[in-house]
């Protein structure tokens, strides 16, 4: 009886370790809208760091951040625990992802071109 209990416990532990050891998938990067060649957003590419973006096109009009559901998953070591959204008046929005176990390292996740963007967080 004790041997069976140990075998079941060993199998369960191996299953947990296998699940924890799987690497998290990176979020799908995307561009929304047709960005004109002359737009500052045309210089921005998914995967760029926030510092690179600010050096290229300047500071945003407004910004805000929010946690994703992954923030509450124990032992989640991916980089999609938080999102940061920067709003640029007359251009659109840049969404970053990148807070995880390694700290904050925001990279462009989504580029949304919208010339009617007022640049302020009205949510």
Account of the protein in words:
The protein has 123 residues and is α+β, with helices and mostly antiparallel strands. It contains two helices and five strands. The protein has one domain (25-113). A five-stranded mixed beta sheet has the order 1-5-4-3-2, with no helix packed on it. The chain is elongated. The termini are far apart.
Tag the structure with descriptive keywords.
5-stranded mixed sheet, elongated, 29% strand, 123 residues
| Percent of residues in helices | 10-25%
Domain count: the total is 1
Shape: elongated
| Largest sheet entry | 5 strands, mixed
Radius of gyration: 20 Å
Q: What pattern of helices and strands is seen along the backbone? A: HEHEEEE
> What portion of the residues fall into strands of 2 or more residues?
25-35%
Class based on secondary structure composition and strand pairing: alpha+beta
Distance between the termini: 60 Å
Q: Count of DSSP helices?
A: 2
Mean pLDDT: 80
Order of strands in the sheet with most strands = 1-5-4-3-2
Please report the total strand number as a whole number: 5
